[in-house]
Design goal:
This protein is an alpha+beta fold. It has a single domain (2-182), classed as Alpha-Beta Complex (Cyclic Phosphodiesterase, Chain: A). Helix content is 31%, strand content 34%. It contains four helices and nine strands; from the N terminus they run βαββαββαβαβββ. The chain has helices at residues 12-28, 57-68, 101-115, 139-152; strands at 2-9, 34-36, 43-52, 74-84, 92-97, 128-134, 158-161, 163-169, 175-182. The strands form two sheets. A five-stranded antiparallel sheet has the order 2-6-5-4-7. α2 runs antiparallel to α3 (101-115). The radius of gyration is 17 Å and the shape is globular.
């Protein structure tokens, strides 16, 4: 079984800005309950699949391709810092992503196609880039992160989404790209 999820990577100015923000947060927000994400793991998740049998992976890739039909490359931009469930006592610190009908369409269609093969997590979709996890949730972390977020506001850095990636979350904590599906019109 492979632990899989579907997402889109960051690139260009957005990746540079997100890594710089993460570096600043790592320097300025330290707490025993806080684990920052490694820069190479930054992405926007479309769907969590959980454990999937190896022989089903080609079917999942085909379903991602089917769900991507009709979504040409599109622009996204980074928003502001937030937290789940909120910054009052966050368990997850994240960087928001601009509202995008193209992203919502892609997420909905890919999830619908892949959901015919495997059971997906049933959550309201809130596009974001996870920056850190806090266990247990911490008001102190929330306060420090909120202060930096208020100073910075929306990050605004843009990038073009031109592919969807199937990732594996490995037992040693890495994310490996299993397969990349290009959006229509991308060579």
């Amino acid at each position: 079984m492979r632990r899989l999820f579907i997402g889109v990577g960051l690139s260009g100015d957005a990746e540079t800005a997100a890594v710089a923000l993460l570096s600043r947060l790592q320097r300025e927000v330290q707490h025993q309950a806080l684990r920052w994400v490694k820069p190479e793991k930054l992405h926007v998740t479309l769907a969590f699949l959980g454990p999937v049998e190896e022989e089903r992976v080609p079917e999942v890739v085909a379903a991602i391709a089917d769900g991507s039909v009709g979504t040409p490359p599109f622009a996204l931009s980074l928003g502001s810092i937030g937290g789940f469930p909120d910054l009052g006592r966050p368990k997850v610190v994240w960087l928001g992503v601009s509202e995008s009908e193209a992203l919502a369409h892609l997420q909905r269609n890919v999830s619908e196609q892949v959901g015919r093969l495997v059971r997906l997590e049933d959550r309201v979709y809130h596009p974001h880039v996870t920056l850190g996890r806090v266990s247990p949730g911490s008001p102190a972390v929330g306060h420090m992160v909120r202060t930096i977020g208020e100073e910075l506001g929306d990050i605004g850095a843009e990038w073009t989404v031109n592919e969807v990636r199937l990732y594996e979350s490995t037992s040693d904590g890495r994310y490996e790209v299993v397969e990349t599906v290009r959006l229509p019109g991308v060579p």
